[in-house]
Amino acid sequence: MLASFILVLSLLVAMYSTLIERKVAGWFQDRHGPNRAGPWGLLQPLADGAKLFFKEEFMPLSADKFLYILGPSLTMFIALLTSAAIPWGPDLIINGAAYPLQVADVNIGILYVFAILSIGVYGIMIGGWASNNKYALLGAVRASSQMISYELAMSLSIITIVMMTGSLSMREIVAQQQGFNWNIIYQPLGFLIFLICAFAETNRAPFDLPECETELVGGYHTEYSSMKLGFYLFAEYINMFISGAVMATLFLGGYHFPGLDKLGLSPNVFAFVSFMVLFTKITLFGFIYMWIRWTLPRFRYDQLMKLGWKSLIPLAILNVVVTGVVILLNQ
Amino acid sequence: MFTQYIFHFLSIMALFSAVMVLASKKPIHSVLFLTLTFFSIAGHYVLLNAQFLAVVHVIVYAGAIMVLFLFTVMLLNLNHDERSPKPMWVNIMAFIAGGMLMLTLIGIFRGYDIQSAQDPMTTQIGLVKNLGKILYHDYLIPFELSSVLFLTAMVGAVLLGKKEQI
Q: Which residues have C-beta within 8 Å of that of residue A329, sequence separation ≥ 6?
């Protein structure tokens, strides 16, 4: 029940993120953005979806047929997997029974998120290779090296959170951030590293090297058309939504907001308001993603690698050491 | 009962993809089948109530090592099997050697008392808390030594990879 609700929610959010992205782009470039389909362009995502469905399905002659279809399907599938471990709010009370707003409270939730993250690159690599196109292949190779490089710094920045919380469960991490006890206050550097790596992991500008259209035509999805291309583009927005949820959960207190638990709301209203708090935080991250995309130019490939290996990883290791020393001194 | 079906499904998948690693013509298919094998083994770990091991298995093998494999295969663009055909006697020797290894393994597991296996749901040994206690209390020195071993390998790889003389 909850799982299907979250599935529909992620798809809906991803759909409307495409509209918001174009609206934000319009705002940043001092123009209107899409405003023809429906009031304020609200029907634009539906029109885009319909257009993608009716476009011609094209498959390159020398493509690896099975892998060519597997690529976008896998990307979409993996993008939708992560949301299972995220706690979306406090328990709902229906007829005296508590229903947790989390699909699976595994005691290693944070590692589960990283496992899904680390296999996220397969869809791109398989698709890029199966197209049998040199630009697609270059995009795929870039995607794999970029993701591996940034995954390291990302995991290292999370280790500090695990050290402070003493648990790998997402629910436990959120529970310890009650009130204004947010992790971002104790781990500003970790948060910054995680944010930068999240941009690289979701292939968003300024790290969208795998699809860099000025060098690689369209990168890994050069040969894709119709809804298969739609899946790749759509998965990117789902990833944005989910990574925003992960960041809000790990660093910004999840569904907690200072003073909210003292208002004396009834449990179900409280659960709903808490969910809306989390959703607002995710929206904030979504806006930051778009803000940066339309502000910063794209990195060069060697700059990207240098930033990952020579700045972020040493900083993250330093962060781990400093956190460890502080925890030891406070004992 | 349900776990029995999952066990059989995962085992068949693991064996099938392991065979396909060898049987595939294109190196890239072999790599992808190997990834599938790792995933089915991770599924077995989940059935054994060792979620931590399963997730780490996926992160390390499927998420890092196999991606690097795939990366290398793509970078060299090995579209076809370009190995030179081997003479017949090499194949026969390989068959005999592999067959002897298999016989040894079967011999080991035939002598093993399967009935003594405990229900994984009661032992809870695979959960991260118990595993951490064992690793950092009982086996601290071997654990740290193996990490030094990894570091040595890493330094060695960097040293070999450097082009200029040091």
A: none
Nearest CA in chain B to A136: B74
Separation of alpha carbons A246 and A83, rounded Å: 9
Contact by Cβ (8 Å): A125, B67: yes
Peptide bond into A297 cis (omega under 30): no
- For residue B134, CA distances in Å to A160, A223, B131, B138 come to 22, 51, 5, 5
* Per-residue pLDDT reduced to its tens digit, A65-103: 888 888 888 888 888 888 888 888 777 777 767 777 777
One-character DSSP codes across A262-316: GS---HHHHHHHHHHHHHHHHHHHHHHHHHHHTTSPPPPHHHHHHIIIIIIHHHH
Buried b (16+ CB within 10 A) or exposed e, A77-87: ebbbbbbbbbb
* Run of H or E including B148: helix B140-161
Cross-chain residue pair B28–A129, CB shorter than 8 Å: yes
Mutant choice from A65, A105, A122 vs B, greatest count of B C-beta within 10 A: A122
Read off the pLDDT of residues B8-65 as tens digits, 9 standing for 90 and up.
Answer: 888 999 999 998 888 887 788 888 899 899 989 988 888 887 788 888 888 888 888 8
Q: Which residues pair with B82 in a beta bridge?
A: none
Mutate to test the interface with B, among A117, A119, A133, A145 (most CBs of B within 10 A): A119
Cα separation, A74 vs A127, in Å, equals: 9
Q: Write out the two tokens for A146.
A: 């970029």
Half-sphere exposure of B20 (CA within 13 A, CB side): 16
Asked if residues A242 and A284 have their Cβ atoms less than 8 Å apart, the reply is: no
pTM: 0.83
B67 to A129: CB separation less than 8 angstroms, yes or no: no
Residue spans per domain, chain A: 60-330
B105-131 as b/e, with b when 16 or more CB fall inside 10 Å? eeeeeeeeeeeeeeebeeeeebbbeeb
Contact yes or no for B67 and A126 at CB 8 A: no
Q: Which residues pair with A93 in a beta bridge?
A: A98
Q: Of all helices (H) and strands (E), which one includes residue A194?
A: helix A188-201
- A195 vs A44: CA distance, rounded Å: 30
Is the CB of A144 less than 8 angstroms away from the CB of B56? no
Return the structure tokens found at A121.
Answer: 């690159």
Render A46-95 in DSSP notation, one character per residue: HHHHHHHHHSPP---TTS-HHHHHHHHHHHHHHHHHGGGG---SSPEEET
CATH class of B2-80+89-126: mainly alpha
Distance CA A163, CA A183 (A): 12
Task: Give residue limits of the domains in chain B.
Answer: 2-80+89-126, 127-166
